[in-house]
Amino acid sequence: LQDIPTLGIDESYLLTQDIYCDETFTPIGIDASCTPFNGTFDGDGFTIYDIFPSMWLGASSLGLFCGLENATVTDLTLMNATINGSSNVGILAGYADSSNISDVNVSGTVNGTSSEVGGLIGANYYGNIDNCHANVTVFSDDIFAGGLVGLNVVLATINNSGATGNVVSDAFAGGLVGMNYYATVDNSYATGDVLASAYAGG
Questions:
Q1: Does residue 202 carry a pLDDT above 80?
Q2: Contact indicator for 143, 114 with CB cutoff of 8 Å
Q3: I need a surface site. Which of 2, 48, 92, 129 has the fewest CB within 10 A?
Q4: What is the per-residue pLDDT across 117-144, written as a single tens digit (0 to 9) for each?
Q5: Are 40 and 70 contacting, i.e. CB atoms less than 8 angstroms apart?
Q6: Which of these, 119, 115, 121, lies nearest to 144 by C-alpha position?
Q7: Distance between CA 99 and CA 127 in Å, rounded?
Q8: How far is CA 58 from CA 74, 84, 87, 111, in A?
Q9: For residue 200, what pLDDT band results from cuts at 50, 70 and 90?
Q10: How confident is the model at residue 201 (pLDDT cuts 50, 70, 90)?
Q11: What is the pTM of this model?
Q12: What distance in Å separates the CA atoms of residue 71 and residue 67, rounded to the nearest whole number?
């Protein structure tokens, strides 16, 4: 995983076994800034455990990938992750732009001191999320926090997906999506509790 930036962020990768991470894990693509992954990552049904980028506490754009752009991620499970950042924070990626994400399941805890905090993705722009599920407790000290996606905007779509974790935020909090604007959500659900001082929903 840690060699992907060197091997090429625009290449295709196939996971061939389960992977166990430790506190030295660095989100793919992050350095002084975020270079988003724009290749293909096929998990082939395997699981990545215990993602915890402890060396990047409080940074923006945190997750397995710092960001996704014109990328495809499929058939992957991320279990028992802990992501602590500021804005654009999610277990799979801090943000996704024009990307296709399918059959991805995540569990763990996500904490953001700023906005766009989600169980799977912090912010989703122009992208498609299909058959993805999050069992994640999500905390945000600001706005746009969701059990699956914090901010889902600009022709983005979420289909056949769900979230079961609790969400706590200052405002614009949702069990599935914190804020959905000019975007589509279809045949999806949320079952967790949502707590916010304003604009809270399922």
A1: no
A2: no
A3: 2
A4: 999 999 999 999 999 999 999 999 999 9
A5: no
A6: 115
A7: 5
A8: 28, 6, 9, 9
A9: very high
A10: confident
A11: 0.97
A12: 9
